[in-house]
Amino acid sequence: MSFARFLTKRLLQGAFVVWGVVTIVFGLRVIAPGDPANVLLPPDVDPEVRRQVIADLGLDEPLHVQYWEFISGIPVGDLGTSLTTGTEVTSRVARSIPATLELAVAATVVAVIIAIPLGVVSATNRHEAPDYGATLFSLAGISTPNFWLGVMLIIILSVQLNLFPTSQRAIGIPAVFELLFAGQLEAAGEGLVTWLWYITLPAITLGTYFTALITRLTRSGMLDELGKTYVRASRAKGLPESLVRYRHVLRNTLIPIITVVGLQLGTLIGGAVITEFVFDWPGLGQVLINSINSRDWPMVQGSLIVISVGFVVVNIVVDTLYSYVNPRVGFDG
């Protein structure tokens, strides 16, 4: 299968997934108890005023009409208007995307940097102290709830030791790049340090489970590859152990790791909700929780649609990377 056909197929599949998410979200709004008009109106409002507001929101239209009006605006970026603030959902969500992407990518980088070397050490020292230590670390990481870990990190490292800020995001990567392109190198460097200072605790909190997962996956993949014939042949030829271990064995282990990293990156984009809430990080998760609490359905719908699109895009990118990591994997998926 050519790359163009592969990409077309994946895009069509992704569009179908996004359509399914959109339909489910619309259905949840329909069956959810309560009236969106209550967000805008006090309980003792005149019934005529209530009917007028419902008509202005289009909630008195048949469901199929509401559904068509909802989905027809999505391809052109029209996700509706917030019930609580009156702002465009698209612009509000767009302002939150960089913060969520920064957190998800930072958590992934933290996980990969720690997990892959730890998994290699664990596999090459099987049934020894490093292996047992990595296993205990993985068990602790998988078993620890993110919200609890975040609170503990804030109490210990922020409140008691005053090493990191407790919350917020003082500066974002886009602002750092603006300073860099403007030639303000010193300010850009200070901004990057500040960004790292603020994102460290949220990234560790979000990436802990991911770190444990990749560690176990790397260990199992390395153990499987180390027992194969080509490894024994490479050693018999006198190749250095480091070359065998990292050039051949680890590279062949990367296929499942890339799969999990890609899938988890998409999951982190949507799963950062609790972490963003704990650290008051101004991303999509924060917007989503606030919108749910205020029953702002247009904002809830817009946030979920963007999250689903991000998940689909990440999966397409991961599928494309397969062939470059291992030439035996073509565009036949």
UniProtKB/TrEMBL annotation:
Protein's membrane topology: Multi-pass membrane protein
Superkingdom of origin organism: Archaea
Primary localisation category: membrane
Ranges where the ABC transmembrane type-1 domain occurs: 97-322
A GO CC term attached to the entry: plasma membrane
Entry annotated with the keyword Nucleotide-binding: no
TM stretches of this protein: 12-32, 103-124, 136-159, 195-214, 254-279, 299-318
Annotated family: Belongs to the binding-protein-dependent transport system permease family.
Name assigned to this protein: ABC transporter permease
Organism: Halorubellus litoreus
